[in-house]
Amino acid sequence: MSSTGSSISISVDLYLGQTVTVTYEARNFLRKPTFDNKIKVALSKGQPFIRFMEKAADTDPKMRFNFTATYYPNLGYFINKLNNVQSDRCAYWLLLKPPNIPTKKGVSSYIPVNGETLIFNFTDHWPGQGYCSGLQNGL
């Protein structure tokens, strides 16, 4: 006689009622239109940064935090466009901690802590190389 076991999975929200407030900054000094926009976003503790981005896009009346993203299985979301500025062969959106420290995780896996500032910076793929100087000058 053989017996078959069953398993039960129970999820418990350890952070029930706890809120995390993050200052989210989207900046582009690389090409026109340049901008440096900031917004404070509050969500329940334990949420990945992509959820803070979604809330910012939903709540900002000036629509300065709208974005498009592509989801890659096993990797997460890649931000293609932010505030109508598109990533391309010359530049991309990079998630930073102040002043300019890249996070080791992307928007799908980075879990912000209360009071943190996170910056999405439009970043040159090849700084100082001149490969994309026409695009950087808004041409």
What does this structure look like?
- With 139 residues, this protein is mostly beta strands.
- It has one domain: Ferric Hydroxamate Uptake Protein, Chain A, domain 1.
- Helix content is 11%, strand content 37%.
- The chain contains 2 helices and 8 strands.
- The chain has helices spanning 49-59, 133-136; strands at residues 19-28, 35-44, 67-72, 76-82, 85-86, 91-97, 101-102, 117-124.
- The strands form 2 sheets. Strands 2-1-8-6-7 form a 5-stranded mixed β-sheet, with helices on one face. A 3-stranded antiparallel β-sheet has the order 3-4-5, with helices on one face.
- The protein is globular and about 50 Å long.
- The protein starts with 18 loop residues before the first strand and ends with a helix.
Q: Count the strands?
A: 8
Could you give the order of strands across the largest sheet?
2-1-8-6-7
Residues in helix, % = 10-25%
- N-to-C series of helices and strands: EEHEEEEEEH
Q: Please give the alpha-carbon distance between the first and last residues.
A: 76 Å
Instruction: Figure out the total of helices.
Output: 2
Q: What do the pLDDT scores average to?
A: 85
Strand content: 35-45%
- Provide the low-confidence segments as ranges: 1-7, 9-13
How would the global form be characterised? globular
Task: Return the domain count.
Answer: 1
